[in-house]
Amino acid sequence: MTGPEAGAATLPTHAISTGDGRSFECGSTDTLLRAALRAGVAATYECNSGGCGTCKFTLTSGEMHQLDPDAAGLTPRDKRKGKMLACQSVPLTDCEVALQAGDAWFADQSTPGVRSGRVTRVRHLTHDLREMTLTAPGAAEFLPGQFAMLTVPGAPIHRGSPDGAPRGLERAYSMSNLPNDDGQWQFQIKRVPGGAVSGIVVDDLDIGDEVLIDGPYGHAHLKDSGRDIVVVAGGSGLAPMVSVVRGLAERADAVDRRIDFYYGGRTPVDMCAIEFVDEVRDRVARVELVEAVSMDDADDGWTGPRGFIHALIDHDTVDGLADRDIYIAGPPMMTDAVVRKLVLELGVSTDNIHYDRFF
Ligand SMILES: Cc1cc2nc3c(=O)[nH]c(=O)nc-3n(C[C@H](O)[C@H](O)[C@H](O)COP(=O)(O)OP(=O)(O)OC[C@H]3O[C@@H](n4cnc5c(N)ncnc54)[C@H](O)[C@@H]3O)c2cc1C
Ligand code: FES
């Protein structure tokens, strides 16, 4: 494999004004959301992938192209009201938009940028989960728990390129390592059956292949609160939780901190969190791992807990749960079930819960 498809050579840039006095430029290869973030406008978002609906906005004047007109983040009602998703919108003219955005840029975050990386290391963690390290020029600046948008060679051409230039589909993947000066970006990517991009990463990418990295993005990063933490990962959600745990273990107060690591998979062959827990064991006060399989197969040899991971989290199983920071990553159904249980049944404050749903 070689590199991702290149975009067109010279493409126009359009002026965007937000109607509240803010303005920025958006190129034809960028989305409204990303251009806003690159310009320091703290636009509201979560997944950057069209799934969550957090980045909805109204177009007041001008024309926008929709990368994925069927994106799940917009309901039929939203569409009737003329709402659009900033993460799926590319301006075709100068535009005025009513965009939800905070007053100040997220103080602790790096501005997202695009860089080209090469695959420098790969290893299989399980039958369908592969760790991939990319090396790119400059420092890898991100916060533990954040993600990047990757374009990999061989990805299907994006059906919605507004300028007709061939451009590969991008997907969001979370970094599993820590920020570093060596330009190393590490990911753990799970093959989704029939998936357009994940299968290429797990089965086809080779050392030396070129991958475009656009990031960092995401708000569910390790906070500086001084609290003990709980991390909950399901399936493909392992990477950001590994990064959060590694980040905590690096801190000066790590020796006083406790980590409870919950990992849910379908079958015993999906289990692989132990090496990441062992890695930090001698640097934190205490780390516990609870792994559960959701498939009910009496012949699979599993002697640990069975069922959905949210069922195992309780005040009895995590001491001081209400005073911990809780990080969650994985499929939306799992994430929503954990959040519901924490808030509605266990009385945990939403301020202590930080999550990314993997649409
Ligand atoms: C913020 C964020 C961070 C993410 N981080 C990671 C990560 O670190 N590692 C990782 O492996 N993935 C991660 N993902 C998921 C990833 O972006 C892709 O959605 C996933 O790899 C599937 O892409 P695909 O092109 O192979 O499948 P698609 O062609 O997009 O989808 C094929 C089918 O699979 C379903 N599907 C999509 N994603 C999933 C999923 N995660 N689990 C089950 N079914 C799914 C779709 O609904 C569709 O029906 C993250 C997603 C988000 C939004
Ligand atoms: S951030 Fe746009 S739909 Fe999730």
UniProtKB/TrEMBL annotation:
CDD domains found in the cross-reference section: fer2 (cd00207), T4MO_e_transfer_like (cd06190)
Molecular functions (GO terms) = 2 iron, 2 sulfur cluster binding; oxidoreductase activity
Q: What are its cofactors? A: FAD
* Keyword annotations from UniProtKB, A to Z: 2Fe-2S, Iron, Iron-sulfur, Metal-binding
Q: List the InterPro entries hit by this protein, alphabetically.
A: 2Fe-2S_ferredoxin-like_sf, 2Fe-2S_ferredoxin-type, 2Fe2S_fd_BS, Beta-grasp_dom_sf, Cbr1-like_FAD-bd_dom, FAD-bd_FR_type, FNR_nucleotide-bd, MRET
Q: Where is the 2Fe-2S ferredoxin-type domain?
A: 12-103
Which source organism does the UniProt entry give? Gordonia spumicola
Domain annotation FAD-binding FR-type: ranges: 112-223
Specify whether Chloroplast is a keyword of the entry.
no
Q: Which Pfam families match?
A: FAD_binding_6 (PF00970), Fer2 (PF00111), NAD_binding_1 (PF00175)
Question: What is this protein's name?
Answer: Oxidoreductase
The domain of life for this entry's organism is Bacteria
